Amino acid sequence: MNKGERHRITHVEVTIPADHERFSQLGVIADFQVAGDFTLPTTEHRDHYKHLIGDRYENFVSVKSIRDQHAEDLTTFSSDWDVSPLNPFLGIEHATNRGRESVDVKTAIEMYTINPAYAMRQEDKTGSLAVGKEADFIVIDKDILKALEEGEKISETFVLRTVFKGRPIFSSENFKRAVVDVCKHLNFGYQYIWAEVCMD
After folding, report:
1. φ and ψ at 169, to 5 degrees?
2. Is 17 among the domain residues?
3. In the chain, which stretches have pLDDT less than 50?
4. Distance between CA atoms of residues 23 and 67, nearest Å
5. What is the spatial distance between Cα 20 and Cα 71, in angstroms, rounded to a whole number?
């Protein structure tokens, strides 16, 4: 990983295989946007791409090929809003459904979290949970690491709670009901727990 300058190419779309290893050689971050349906290998846009750029369309959004060239920390996902949907869970789902350019769910999560934090020189503050960091995280309604094998759609994941710098800034009604139900079930003094743990 390049500890000096952190140059980045955003909208990495059409590349040639000879350039894939150059990202890691030069320490350049490759930033992809995959939430748009048009980036999927099965999209109807492919015939249009082939007409315009010929066989190079085969290397359209080469996420895995570039990442596999020793660029694990130098590959990121971003939203491309408002050209593509803002939903990062849709991007994670698409990242796992790219044929030979697919990555696994854990990798896709890293490409949306700790890797962009590195790109912004914020890896010591955010992007993962660790002692001394700012405790930016969300609580969601499913285990997205297991969602695909259980037949669930990652893109339909809902955020139940958002915590920013250790302080809750959003809680859905579903989250509030779930906490009260759990506390009741465990026979805790749920009103106390609700006040101390769950309220903003």
Report:
1. -120, -10
2. yes
3. 1-2, 188-200
4. 9
5. 9
Among residues 65, 95, 60, 59, the alpha carbon closest in space to that of 77 is found at 95
- Regarding pTM above 0.90, the answer is no
Structural domain for 108, as ranges? 8-129
pLDDT tens-place string over residues 32-49 = 999 999 888 876 777 777
Distance (Å, whole) CA 160 – CA 104: 24
- Residue 102 CA to residue 13 CA, distance in Å, equals 15
Angle between helices 88-95 and 105-112 (to 10 degrees): 140
Cα gap 193→103, rounded to integer Å: 40
* CA 167 from centre of chain: 22
Is there a domain that residue 167 lies in? no
DSSP tag of 194: I
Domain count, the chain: 1
Tell me which H or E stretch contains 162: strand 159-164
Kindly state whether residue 43 falls inside one of the protein's structural domains. Answer: yes
Position of tokens 């459904």?
97
Has residue 13 been placed in a domain? yes
Cα dihedral sign, 90-72-148-41: positive
